[in-house]
Amino acid sequence: MHARRGQKPSWNPTGSLSRGWMAAAAVFIALVPIADVFLPPSVHIAHALVLPVALTAVFFGPRRTATIAGIAILALVVAAVERMSLSSESVLVELGSLTLLSVLLLLVSRLLERRGHELAGLRHVSEAVLRPLPPRAGPVSIASAYRAADVDTPVGGDLYAVARTKGATRLLIGDVRGKGLGSIGDTEIVLGAFRATAHRPMPLPELVASLEGSVCWGLNEPGGDGPGADVRERFVTAAIVEIPDDEPYVHVVSCGHLPPLRFHDGAVTSLDTPDPAPPLGLGMLAEGGYAASTFAFAPGDRLLLYTDGVTEARDGRGVFYPLLERAAGWGDLGPARLVDTVTADLRRHAVAGLDDDMAVVALRRDESPDPSIPAPHRAAPPAPRPAPATALPNERG
Which keywords describe this protein according to UniProt (predicted)? Predict the structure, then answer.
């Protein structure tokens, strides 16, 4: 797994590979009438002609399939002429069967090619939605891994993004309700709101309040889930962290998301927030403001952020993946090795495979903050929540 893990590498069968296959298929087909010269009259190998046609249809597109099919049909005719049995009933049946199968395989090849173009377009759009994280932002080194539940697509319902503001690095990790292709629209709403706001020099609680307002309106947009959709069924758990450049701590606002893990002096700690907020999109259900919990984050410390696709992966006995327990032995790993270790260990644990979206982000502070600034011991004051989005007419109870 890597920054865009979960997607299959695209294979474009052109160039020397394609030319080599076409030559090999043509030679194979030519051997059929040649072999017929030496085989007894009771032995027929015409059925083998369908093999190169079928393989070409699956891997090399309709144009090459039509070419190989034409050569195969011609070879069958030549073999029949050699035996002087072109008008016999058995040869006519073989010729008709090969022609029909070639037409069907050509249609299959057309469908596969169209599906390939659709997936390529979807992959292009998805990669524009979930951009790769940079390896560094300010004094913070970053590594990440991503896997979508739909293995043919690079993006699902998990998300992450990073932004620089004056004197700080901000990172968002989140999990849209649902998974796979059906959640990409909501993923785009959250990422768009974060990218439009996170670079502004506002306090972190105000940033999250702004995100809640934008996400709430985005999820309530007409046509999102059809008439009568319940907005409470659409939400995003998220953790937003801010790492000041010159201060030895990290601020965390949790909106119903899993707590980050901090690696410090070989020990691993779960950074649980005392009063997590509701998930984005459900802020209207709670009163009060957003509070940023503050934790020490010294040079060399690392953070591991993740989604429930990690912690809810099961082994063959149905046991959830024990991330905190496993992480206790990874205290000295840098961001890239930490991400690789998590994903490799997760694959070994989930022997039946991963069936949910999964995102992992590792951070490390590399530069020393100002030593004159002590690490604070309390959360920043809460920011007021935005006013609830007005319900659409078809969403009123």
Answer: Hydrolase, Membrane, Transmembrane, Transmembrane helix
